[in-house]
Amino acid sequence: MKIDLIKKFTSRKFLAGLLSFAGALLTVFNVDKLTTEQIMLILGGMASLVAYIFAEAHVDGKRVKDELIIETEIDAGKDVNGNGA
């Protein structure tokens, strides 16, 4: 069984858990509320951006892979449905 670590680390559940842990640490170390809010906003924005970038990269990679498969089938003399010409 292959584990896709990039997919796991960019999942919304993992990122939400990470932000929650960061908030708990800031509270434990008595960081004032305004600073905590500012840090959480920055981390939340960064997490959203990272998730978006990896999601777009995944979609783009899938599209390129599908295009290569279609080109290979056309070169092999198959139609779009995979039937021989």
Mind sketching the topology for me?
Layout: H1 5-9, H2 12-28, H3 33-75
Note down, in words, how this protein is organized.
With 85 residues, the protein is mostly helical. It has a domain at 7-56. 76% of the residues lie in helices and 0% in strands. The chain has three helices and no strands. Helix 2 (12-28) runs antiparallel to helix 3 (33-75). The longest helix has 43 residues, at 33-75. It is elongated, with a radius of gyration of 22 Å. The mean pLDDT is 83.
Q: Would you summarize the structure shown here?
A:
With 85 residues, this protein is mainly α. The protein is built from three helices and no strands.
The termini sit apart by: 38 Å
DSSP helix fraction: over 70%
Number of strands: 0
Q: Topology as H/E string?
A: HHH
By DSSP (H or I, 4+ residues per run), the number of helices equals 3
Beta-sheet strand percentage?
under 5%
Mean pLDDT score, rounded? 83
Radius of gyration: 22 Å
Name the poorly predicted regions.
none
Strand pairing plus helix content: what structural class?
mainly alpha
Please outline the major beta sheet.
none
Shape: elongated
List keywords for this structure.
mainly alpha; 76% helix; 0% strand; single chain; 85 residues
